[in-house]
Amino acid sequence: MTKMKLALLAGAAVIGSSAMADTASAQTSLIYSGGSTLASKVYRYMMDCYGVPVTPSTLSINTACSSSTGDASGLNLQILYAPVGSGGGKRGFVNNNGSNSTSAGLGTVNTLNTVPYTSTLFTSYSSGYPALEFVGSDDPLVSADLATFNGNSSVVANAGGVVQIPAFVVPVVIAVNGKDGNGNALNIQNSTPTGGSSGLNLSRQALCGIVSGHITQWSNPILTALNNNTQLGTGNITWVHRSDGSGTTFIVSNALIAQCAGVTGPNSETDSTTVVYNFPWTDGKAANVANIGNSGLCYTVSGTRVSQIPVEGSNTINWPDVGSDECGVAIPNPNAAHFANASQSAGVTNLIQSTNGAIGYIPPDFAKPINSTGPIAANLQNEWSVVTGTANFVAPTQAGANSWLSETHPPAFDASNIQSPFTWTLTINANPAAQTSYPLAGWTYLDFYECYTANTYTNLLSYLEFVYGPTGGNIQANQGFGPIGAYGSGVGSAEWLNFIGYIVTNYMSSAGNLGCASHAGIN
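Structure (tokenized):
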């Protein structure tokens, strides 16, 4: 695995990391993690294959695992992962707080979640986890996250700094209830493409029109034209989105800001005036903004508070059903389009399935065909199709994710950024150009600390070798994701593995080594 081999010690892990659950379980070590719900199922599959599986569990051992009973490493190590969302994961990470606090810790898990996050070794999450070693997030660490981390002197004293690396590529599914707004089955006329789960095709104009609130009815002529000139149905379209801080929201909003720019169409089903379908909703992550002067995010004009929060990709968006933004300004919804929200991937999936006419965004392994009980997925027009003027609709498959990876490259290091190990991970391909690339794709990241105690460090390195190795890659692939490792995709992986290996070997260590000489290390 090129430079990764220098760091990962070929599985020679030492048992003894993290806090023990209780005396009876002293022979098994626990590592605590959490975050992204988009990647929560595939993480659970990998963790149960690599280490001691959680019991009881709603998930069986993945078929790609070399051991039918899990614990392929034989290290008697169990990794627990709380699927709370990327926002919660990053919040807990920068505070090194595994509790269920919604102000400083990982937070709580949606009651609809079916991915296990406790076990017989740790039976209750009533107060969260007693420790936190790493997290998963689908949106990168930003300056505000790093400011919080650097402001926690006690955390920095142990952790040193942060290390962020991409885990694999995620194609975000545009999932559909399958019924129109009046509860009748959608009259889908197109055939289902290879790897897809429906014949529902959405052009760039159609998706941008729905998200921006201009296409509000299943009988819209734009949708009819895409459906072999047959009306799909009647009644309202309801756009379902995440209510919590979500990396899935980041991937979708970041992509649609780029892809919807300049797209036009009728204002509504009853108003033929041509308008732009640009992504119009503002960044909602700057909660509790106090700036009211003529600088900052809010200002006043003639005594009226006004928002100047920019439209940008964010893990929290001011959708119309939120009501008001951080400045107290009402969020406009000119066409009275229908929006609804739920927390975490399980909540959004459930709301889509229970709402007639609903459409929204979820992970690939929460939808058909990977999840036989999930909602169907739409096929999306990509940039190649837009540029060439062809009707090319791509299903959210591993192949589409692999193609995204093949045209996405790490930036060159130079003197200005080589000391910032997370800088290169900010490379995000918001509008892939290849013919076979799925357009709503991005990274899911793993966030580690620079400094760990010796046993924890060695165990985490061994797990990373598994994630980027053949079994981890095949588990990712059979859940619809695009592996970075040479196994499962192989496209564009070598250069990424070199960079990941470089980051891990040069910025992640145990106390007393590299930059950790004065840091106690996270246990």
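The first strand starts at residue 29 and ends at 35. Residues 1-26 have pLDDT under 50 and may be disordered.
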